[in-house]
Structures are given as C-alpha cells and as structure tokens.
Design goal:
This protein has 84 residues and is mainly alpha-helical. 65% of the residues lie in helices and 0% in strands. It has three helices and no strands. It starts with 20 loop residues before the first helix and ends with a helix.
Length: 84
C-alpha cells in the first residue's frame, strides 16, 4: 500500500529528476575523456588538473571538428556505392 499510495503533501514533478551540479560535471568530464572516479583527487593538484583538462578539451574539440568531415566522407562513399 505504501508504494502505490499518493503523497501526503504536494505533487511529484513530471519527468526526470533535476540534475545536481556534480552530475553535470561528471557528464562533461566523461565527454572530455577524464576519469570520473578520480577527478576530485586530481583536481586538488592544480597543475596536474590544468593539464588533464587542457588535454581533455583538446581531444573533445578535435573529435567535434572531425565528425562533420567523417560524416561527409561516409555519405560520399554511400553515394558512390549506390551509383555502381
């Protein structure tokens, strides 16, 4: 009964729960290929952290730049294969 009962006060909001700041940091760091399990310890040493972030953002930016080029090449190859 407790699991399926209604809330005593207020309403439960629709959709997914709101993200915490830490959750958004983890998402961003994982996109930059930074180990999310040890990032807090690495951030304590500023020089190491600065290089880790700089390398991670460089790899993320290069992958963003290469995606349209790779997509264009795949489409070009698909068009060539369709014509043959």
């Amino acid at each position: 009964q407790l699991l399926y009962g209604e809330l005593a006060q207020g309403k439960k909001p629709r959709g997914r729960p709101k993200l915490r700041y830490k959750d958004t940091c983890k998402t961003s760091l994982s996109k930059c290929e930074v180990d999310v399990s040890t990032w807090e310890e690495r951030a304590e040493d500023r020089t190491t952290w600065r290089t880790v972030v700089k390398e991670g953002t460089a790899s993320l930016e290069s992958s963003y730049r290469n995606k349209p080029v790779e997509k264009h090449q795949r489409q070009k190859e698909n068009n060539r294969n369709a014509e043959c």
